[in-house]
Amino acid sequence: MIERAIQELGPWSWWVLGFVLLAAELVAPGVFLIWIGVAALAVGILSLMLWEVGLWTWQVQLVLFALLSVAAVLLGRRFVRSSEISDEPLLNQRTESLVGRTAVLDKPIAEGRGRIRLDDTFWIVEGPDLPAGTRVRVVSTHGRNLTVESA
Asked: Is the dihedral of CA 27, 32, 36, 38 positive or negative?
């Protein structure tokens, strides 16, 4: 079946597969199928040049496609990962984004624990014993708890 389809379409079978994979990436984006589509297009380019060569059998084409797919995915992941630098590096790290902010103690810090309100959320804080109403600065985080010092 595979051999028949490749023989009927000739070297263009890889071009068709490559564009189908690229279109599938548009429908179901995940930055994965694009690299396999690029590998199929690369085999398509080689097929246009080597179609009449006796060694260019469909088995060789499939093996080359598999190798190029793996190489393209690995190189693509490295390329995409290195370009994912956000202008908001603490976007999904809410507690880390609070370091450096100041607030007023809502409940006093007694025995090392108290509470502050930042924006619309109450946070458990740890630090030296301080009375309610004292202005404090967040210096670090531990899970969902904030460590504060007197501002």
From this structure: positive
